[in-house]
Amino acid sequence: MAKPNCTQCKHFYVTWDPQKPNGCRQFGIQCKPLPSQIVASAGMGECEGFVAKAKKTQETTDRVDLSDRKYW
Q: What are the boundaries of each domain within the chain?
């Protein structure tokens, strides 16, 4: 199994604290490196809490072209 990429996990979030910018809701940690590195260094092996984020559908990725004159 490949190493989990925290930024693609639904439990990952960016904190307000510049000293600890990365967080994991699954393990309840905030840290400077990626949370999966902390989990591995704690002797727990590879992160077992990884859950891939849901893919965005076309409806959620539709964008409004603000340079279109009909909006101005």
A: 1-54
Phi-psi region of 53 (alpha: psi -120 to 50; beta: other; left: phi over 0): beta
CA distance 22 to 18: 9
Q: What is the DSSP letter of 42?
A: I
Q: Is the full-model pTM beyond 0.85?
A: no
In whole angstroms, give the CA distance from residue 44 to residue 37. Answer: 10
Mind listing the pLDDT tens digit of every residue in the chain (72 residues)? 567 789 999 999 999 999 999 999 999 999 999 999 988 888 888 888 889 888 876 666 677 888 888 888
Q: Which residues contact 52 (CB under 8 A, 6 or more apart)?
A: 8, 9, 10
